[in-house]
Task: structure prediction
Amino acid sequence: MHSNSQSKSRIESSDRSTSFSTGDYESNSTSVFDYILRALYKIAYKGHLVVNYFLRSKTQGAYVAIWHEGRILLIRNSYKSTYTIPCGGIDRGEAPVEAASRELFEEVGLDFSIEAFNQVFETINHTEFKKDHIFLFEVNLKALPSPQPDGREVIWAGFRALEDALEMPLFPPVRNYLLKKATTDRK
Result:
């Protein structure tokens, strides 16, 4: 589900982690339908947390780190207070790399060949009351892409330098990945 009303935005803010700059993309979707869908995402997410709390679900997820000139693409979901990278669950019978490609397209409208995805990180995450087996892929780009947040699930996307990203409120597995990357890059 993609909205066709996205554009680049520049907004000033005193908070460096949430300030907008060139290369940031905000959805301009403001229809009543979009607001209803955002509310439904929040309700579904809270329901997801309750179910996980009681069932301690076991899931598999695919994450995609898009890199351009040392800057990573971060997104902000309409139903979470942390920043993350494009990600989502792996469907039954779907390879992790296929899920990563699908989620990247669904969330920010970016489409790359499977060969561009390089699996670099794998972990078990226990956030959100579940045991989530995460496969993380990197895509390194020479040209700056133009992500298009759908305005419903994803309301913001932007590129940040590694150091700046680590200062932001990040979803725990994304923070772990970036900390590992920062340590590896220093060597």
User: Anything to note?
Assistant: Residues 1-20 have pLDDT under 50 and may be disordered. The domain at 23-186 is CATH 3.90.79.10 (Nucleoside Triphosphate Pyrophosphohydrolase). Residues 32-55 form the longest helix (24 residues).
